[in-house]
Amino acid sequence: MSIEQIAPLVRGEYLRRLGVPVVVTALPDADSGLEAQQIGELASIAPPEGGDWGTSWVEVESVDELPAALAAAPLQNQGLVEVDGRSYGYKVSTVGAPEPLPHGKDPAASAAAARARVVQGKVAVVTGGAQGFGAEIVRGLVASGAFVYIADLNADGAAKLAAELGPNTAAVTVNVADEASVEAMAAQIAATTGGLDLVVSNAGIVRAGSVLEQEAADFRLTTEINYTAFFLITKHLGRLLAAQRRTAPDWTTDIIQINSKSGLVGSNKNGAYAGSKFGGIGLVQSFALELVEQGIKVNAICPGNFYDGPLWSDPDRGLFVQYLASGKVPGATTVDEVREFYEAKVPLRRGTYGSDVMRAIYYLIEQEYETGQAVPVTGGQVMLSS
């Protein structure tokens, strides 16, 4: 018995009966070998009309018997599950009650707020969430009422962002290219919130260089983090989502890969990156076909260039610096000239913002009939054709 097996089943039962997202947190005395991460204040769920909450107790001999036993048990705001002599105590709460939608004369603003509501109260994880696009996504999800795990190898950066954004976040240290690290993250999530509703696989790196000169080590590192890591994230977090589905058969969840426009068109002197992103879309389509039976939608967002973020603008390792050094922009002698060259390629004449990506995330979540897609968010720089 592992907490990754039990906690999602318990959370799924509450999702099925209540029809709203909940947080299922392991109690300190759970016989799991793993305590829940300390997170901020959560809201209590209201008891049944005219009744009071109590403690549910379920005892089974195997995990396979647990779904039926949970369905037959009374709904309580805390409980104890015993499987083959091992115990799992839990309490149930919510991220918080939805704020009322703004009312005003701007229908576009009201529509945007309504779209953001699709993540209200849900539990999400964002890999590479401590900086760049990832941090923008974390901020957007928290502002929309979600509880967000900020998963990053940059432990200090993740902790700093979590402290800034408040109780509806938790920092998790993870190396997305290391399976043991990803598996440990899944166990921690299971103990802390019981499961997930949204996985945003965002972590990635760029190592630009000519195929004639690039070191094989840089090529392999790019592939490990941008391609293999998505497989590992989907494998271990997908198991949590699939387990929830056993007890909440009508609850749909989402895995979204933050890909790139370089996953749709080739990238000169950046083959390692483009290859890893093209491969990522192949995984998205394949995983979508497989996981549809588990109620998991798998899609990709392919942003254009985030010129203002560290990926491009870092003065030491940013892409503007790398592209200047590699001679990718003919005739360019300064970083500013490289930037001007790339901005001129975008019909809407700017780089991609985090808010552009957030709107695409909301779109994919609310689309119940959309899976296996790669959605370009490029300002018109990449246009799909049949």
From TrEMBL:
InterPro entries found in the cross-reference section: NAD(P)-bd_dom_sf, Sc_DH/Rdtase_CS, SDR_fam
Transmembrane segments: none
Lineage: Bacteria, Bacillati, Actinomycetota, Actinomycetes, Propionibacteriales
A GO molecular function held by the record: oxidoreductase activity
Record has Cytoplasm as a keyword: no
UniProt key word Repeat: no
Pfam families hit by this protein: adh_short
The protein's name: Short-chain dehydrogenase
Keywords for the protein's UniProt record, in alphabetical order: Oxidoreductase
Organism: Tessaracoccus aquimaris
The family this protein is said to belong to: Belongs to the short-chain dehydrogenases/reductases (SDR) family.
